[in-house]
Amino acid sequence: SAAPPPSPSGAGAAGPRMEMRSAMTAALGEAMASDGRVLYLGEDVEHGGYYRVSEGLAKRFGRRRVFDWPPDEASLLGTAIGASQAGLLPIVELPYAAYLSCGYNQFVEAAFLHWLSAGRQPNGMVLRLQGFDEGVFGGHFHTANAPPVFGIPGLDVLCYSNGRDWARGLRASLAAAARGGVTMLLDSTALLTRRHLSAGDGLWQQPYPEARSGEPLSPDAVVVYGAGVPPSDSVVACAGAASLPPPCASRLAVLTYGNGVPKALEARAACGVEADVIDSPLLSRLPEALPAALRGRYDALLLVDVCREGAGPLSHQLPRLQREGALPDTWRLLDAAPTYNPLGRLTTFVSAAEIADALRALSAAPPAATLEQPRRL
Predict the structure, then answer these.
(1) Across-strand partners of 188?
(2) What is d(CA 343, CA 332) in angstroms, rounded to the nearest whole number?
């Protein structure tokens, strides 16, 4: 059969525009209303959770389906495994990504056993980890700038940049959980209430993608924000897409994810360099759609990794892109400072100004140049 064309990322979206947190709450409510097997559990989730993502869910669905858990991640994840094996679909909220270490053994067992048994051992669940990427509260343990896992077979780790894609991604993640799989959603604190790319423009709010008309967003999809195109007209490219929108005339692209996406769009507008921005939410492996989205289309590529140097997913994907023939000769990796995050400061995180400087340098670089990451002090 013919390969599907790329689709608008807002397909099926209607209604008022909303920030990411509101879309996440709506998506969780939609999932619980449509499937009685879905549970939501974690610290303080009956009262909205640490960032109010679960606000109103306990009142709507009751404490048998939305319930608090003490600060004990080992028993929390163990309970989720038991719930899954009993035929339920648990969504587990960890308030901060760094807390996963406290329940790491249970988490790894859930992912490994499903993979090692070729799917015969169902441990289906969705893990929500907050406190990831940029933030000023609590220092390193509340603003982790490194994914807590790498190299776990069968585990999909995703970091979405906006509520529209998160809602569609949750549908795909719950479908994977129903098949016994484990998915992790890393949610950037800085994105939960972000509304604007620049002051007052409201461009980082999207309509909610209604389930009756919006397809789930495959973890292997990427989203292309074309140069000169409003963010609302971004295009989803899935594996096997028959065609993609033509690359920008400069043949320069930014590859990033999560909070790097609005920062790259902000930087592109500020510096005036024409560039496509490719949002690749899947961090744990190379998305199937990504090589085709890059191969032969761009002469230069800026990879913006919001994680700290040496711990980010894009540095792991670089050799895979090269093997696929999808890495242009001219490229640069821009990532966060190789340090933990100080309390109350944003200096260790990648900034839009740094992305703008890197775009200017790449646009002026000679062919086949690999630019080194400048060191911060």
Answers:
(1) 132
(2) 29
Tell me the C-alpha distance between 353 and 270, whole Å: 8
Angle in degrees, 0-180, between the axes of helices 260-271 and 352-363, rounded to the nearest 10 = 60
Distance (Å, whole) CA 89 – CA 84 = 6
Predicted model pTM: 0.92
326: buried, middle or exposed (CB in 10 Å: 19+, 13-18, 0-12)?
buried
DSSP state of 142: G
pLDDT reported for residue 97: 86
Residue appearing with tokens 């993502």: 53
Q: How many CA atoms lie within 13 A of 345 on its CB side?
A: 8
Q: Are 25 and 51 in contact (CB under 8 A)?
A: no
Task: Find the DSSP H helices in the chain.
Answer: 20-34, 57-61, 73-85, 104-116, 163-178, 260-271, 290-294, 313-323, 352-363
Q: Token digits for 304?
A: 């913006």
Q: Which residue in the list 114, 142, 196, 316 is annotated as catalytic?
A: 142
Phi, then psi, of 128 in degrees rounded to 5: -105, 120
Query: Which band of pLDDT confidence, cut at 50, 70 and 90, is reported for residue 332?
Result: very high
Gap between the Cα atoms of 84 and 81, Å rounded: 5
Q: What is the pLDDT of residues 199-250, one digit of tens each?
A: 889 999 999 998 876 689 999 999 999 998 888 888 998 876 556 889 999 9
Q: Check if 140 is active-site.
A: no
pLDDT tens digits, residue range 2-38?
Answer: 445 555 565 555 578 999 999 999 999 999 999 999 9
One DSSP character per residue, 277-289 reads EEE--B-SS--TT
Cβ within 8 Å of residue 280, ≥6 positions away: 222, 255, 256, 257, 287, 290
